[in-house]
Amino acid sequence: MQTVKQIASALGVGPDVIRYYTDIGLLRPAVGAQNGYRYYDPHDALRTADARVMRSLGFPLARVKVLSGAPCAEQLAALKDREKDVEEQLRELSLRLERLREVESFLARSALCTGTVEDVARPPIHSLYTYGREKDYRAARRLAAAWMKHLPYTHISVKVPREELNDPGFGGPYSVELGVGATDGFAKRLGLDLSPPVESIPAGRFLIEYLRTPDILSISPADLAPMLSLSRRLRRPFLNHSSGRLLAIEDGPQGPVYSILIRARIG
C-alpha cells in the first residue's frame, strides 16, 4: 500500500492529481482506521495511469470517470467518436492554414502598392457592403454580422462603382463603399448566404491595381490612373463594380496609410 505522495511519485504526477481523482470518486483508496490516511494499491496506480492516457487524448475528466472500468466496447465507441472529433479539428486546421498562407500572400503584395497593375484571370468573388454612401445598409449589416462570424475566412472589401470607373470625365473622388468579402472557394465551403444584398462578380478577366492611400474613402481617378489607362488602351470597359480588398494598415507620420488593391472585371 502506498501513500498519496508515494503513488504520485511513482506515476510522475503531482499529489494534487491523486487527491482530486480520489475526491471525484475515480480512485477509492483504503483509509487507515487509526490515522485516517489514504492508502493506494497497484489497482489505483493503473486506474490513474489509464485515466491520464484518456485525458491526454482529449477526453474531459467527467467522461474519463464514466469510461474508467467500463466495458471495452463502450470504451472503443468513445474512442471512435473522439477520432471523428480530431479529424474534424484537422480539417479545420488545414483550412485555417490555407487561409493563413493566403493572408500572408496578400500582405506580401503590399510591396506592389506603387501603382502596379496586373491583367489576370480570377474566380468569382462575393462582397457585402455596409458603409459608405448615403443609403440604407440595414439588411447588409444584418447579413454581415453572420459573415463576420466566419473570420478569418472573410476579408475587408472595397467597392468603386462601375459607372464611375467607366466615366472618362469623372473627377472624383469615387463613391467608395466598404464591407466584408469572401472568395468563391471559401464562400462555398462555409455555406455563406449569397443572396442580395450580396454582390457577386463572376469569374473572368480582371485588372488589379495596387496602391497606398491615407484616405480609403477618397480614392480618385488620379489614384487609379494606371488601371484606367490600361483599360482604355485595351478598349475593355469595366463590367462590374470593383471588388477590391484591404491588404494592410501601417501607421505613418501623418496617420494611418492603407495598402489596398482595386480589382475590376473587364469585358
UniProtKB/TrEMBL annotation:
This is MerR family transcriptional regulator. It comes from the Bacteria. It holds the Pfam family MerR_1. Gene3D superfamilies: 1.10.1660.10. The keyword Manganese does not apply. The keyword Nucleotide-binding does not apply. Residues 1-70 form the HTH merR-type domain. Keywords: Coiled coil, DNA-binding, Repressor, Transcription, Transcription regulation. InterPro entries: DNA-bd_dom_put_sf, MerR-type_HTH_dom, MerR_fam. Residues 76-103 form a coiled coil.
